[in-house]
Write a structure and sequence with these properties.
alpha+beta; six-stranded antiparallel β-sheet; three-stranded antiparallel β-sheet; 5 helices; 9 strands; globular
Length: about 240
């Protein structure tokens, strides 16, 4: 598998192969796994991106957009719905205010990245180019809902903002409802634990490389409402 992935890491399909190459390096205890995912991890957690009042308004706005009755085919959502179209293009002032707050967090994440490395999928692209978005959407999960483990091969940086989430016994025992980072797809049958589990606290924004495997753990009761987005790969 490593030999197959290595042949594609410099071609047009590279971003589809980096996640698998990373798994090979982790399984073989290759130090390049740390180079790829970061030591410390290339993850940033930012709390209180929005105030409770702003989150309450955003919750109502997003709920009105969740009109689907089932998840989209070929998406990671299990037991919930995902909004249609590019959310950040919605002119609603509540959504645009949230976008501005997340824009600022993305800029801070980019400024805090380690030194450029032309061969790295996150550290190689031109970080001085304008921040553009490849996609943005909201997900509303029902009890026992979750995201299957996946990556975003068309993105550079991926992120999730927790808008509303259960707490206490409604969430369940940790890591119920948490975001698992570095978790490989279960169908691969690999004995690799997540790098970290991040609790879904309203107002919390989690940023990470788009090549990093991630998924969520089912929760007991209530609703888990998020905004997710991908920063486009910089050009130039």
């Amino acid at each position: 598998a490593g030999a197959i992935a290595a042949r594609h890491l410099k071609g047009p399909a590279a971003r589809s192969f980096w996640p698998y190459q990373g798994l090979v390096w982790r399984l073989t205890r290759d130090t390049r796994a740390g180079w790829l995912d970061g030591e410390p991890l290339l993850i940033q957690v930012v709390d209180n991106v929005l105030t409770p009042e702003e989150l309450a308004r955003l919750t109502g706005t997003l709920r009105a957009l969740h009109i689907a009755r089932a998840p989209y085919a070929e998406q990671s959502v299990r037991g919930g719905t995902q909004t249609d179209r590019h959310l950040f293009f919605n002119p609603d002032p509540v959504i645009q205010h949230a976008r501005s707050a997340m824009d600022a967090a993305v800029q801070n994440y980019v400024r805090a990245l380690p030194a450029p490395d032309p061969s790295h999928p996150l550290l190689g692209p031109n970080r001085h180019a304008p921040v553009l978005y490849e996609g943005s959407w909201s997900v509303r999960l029902s009890p026992q809902g979750f995201h299957s483990c996946h990556t975003h091969n068309r993105g550079w940086i991926s992120a999730v903002l927790y808008v509303d989430a259960p707490d206490g016994s409604d969430l369940g025992a940790p890591p119920a409802g948490h975001l698992g980072l570095g978790t490989p797809p279960p169908e691969l049958g690999l004995n690799l634990a997540a790098y970290d589990h991040v609790a879904p606290l309203p107002g919390r924004l989690v940023l990470f490389p788009s090549h990093m495997w991630h998924g969520t753990v089912p929760f007991a009761a209530g609703e888990r409402l998020t905004i997710a987005f991908d920063v486009a790969i910089p050009q130039g």
